[in-house]
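Appendix C reproduces, verbatim, an entry submitted by the partner laboratory led by Prof. M.T., so that reviewers can inspect both the input and the predicted structure.
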Amino acid sequence: MQEDFSQRNKKRERIILLVLGTLIALGPFSIDMYLPSFESIAKEFSITKAEVGFSLTSYFIGIGLGQLIYGPIMDKFGRKKPLLIGLIIYVISAISCFYSPNLEWLVISRFFLALGASAGMVAAKAVVRDVFPTNEVARAISFLMLIMGGAPIIAPTIGGIVISYFTWHAIFVILACFAVLMFISVFKFLPESIDPDKSVELKFKKITSKYYGILTDKIFLTFSLAGSFTIGALFSYISNAPTMFMENYNLSETQFGWLFGLNAAGLIAGSQLNRVVLKKYTTFRVTLFISVVLVVIGLLFTLNAFFSSNFYLTLSLLFSMLFLLGFQNPNTTALSLYPFSKRAGRASALVGSMKMILGALASFVISKFTGVSLVPMAITIMVCLFLSAFLLFRFQKKEKRSLIIIGR
């Protein structure tokens, strides 16, 4: 049964955010923890690190499709039961990754691992939309980013330590154990936030029709696409990071883990400063301003890639970009969910899916041009950031009446 959320209870909300934050951390843990093991996996399967990258791409595809599946299911049956089932799928898939005898098996297992993890990504945003007032959704998502952002700092370091003492297979044992703990915390501490809606139909034609209805909403389309392009820029960096730092700049797996964590700290810092800034400025105004700064950074990064590739300049620009993406991700998500309450599950699934699919496309493009040059990654990042800013300015020009509403 749905718990009554009509009376604000700060302690209860903090517990919910803590559970959701650790739950949504499964996603980045599943990505970042095994990044330092690319070389070990490549050696065991006698393949290149670029080919290992296909297991990253399959994960992004699974995350994108999985969220589309869970959206209507969570609107029909509530948030909690589908979430628990997703965690069970995750544990089974992690065990399958552990036993992978070849790359093909690992790629398929990672796809199903993503299907399990996507339940948490949909549930986290949907529960926030269910529980918190509209004007606090962006700040609540920023809080989730604080917890979720710790994963990229901790995960590569843990992965590097595991590789030092065990084989890469052990990473997936740890992920399976983490998912089991999440299952227990969700079962015990996360209340059901909505009443199941039996009127929601799960026929393919009906599902696609409902998603199309959400997609045609101007506010949703603008901010979900703008957020998706910034995620495309983020995943362009993530997918190329091992090759860029360990081959181009000759960093060890341990050094890469610490440096990757440093950049992730920028993402966390941005998401938390965003919570403070939103107390003074509207979500859209902050998002629009940050988009301009991101385009400037993207341009500088592209020029650096063409003419210099200086290590410290590259690191500084990437850190700055991730810091500002800490603002954009929660803000574009909150703005895209603004028009929805009853359909929050499906809207949350669609925006999450769009972000992951664009991330998968960006990582696929980068995997085709992996090498010592930073130019392909820089161009991909620049294009993504420019398109995101273009959509926001286009919305500002054409939808001034909507701005009065969502600006509050």
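The longest helix spans residues 218-248. Additional entries are available on request from the coordinating office.
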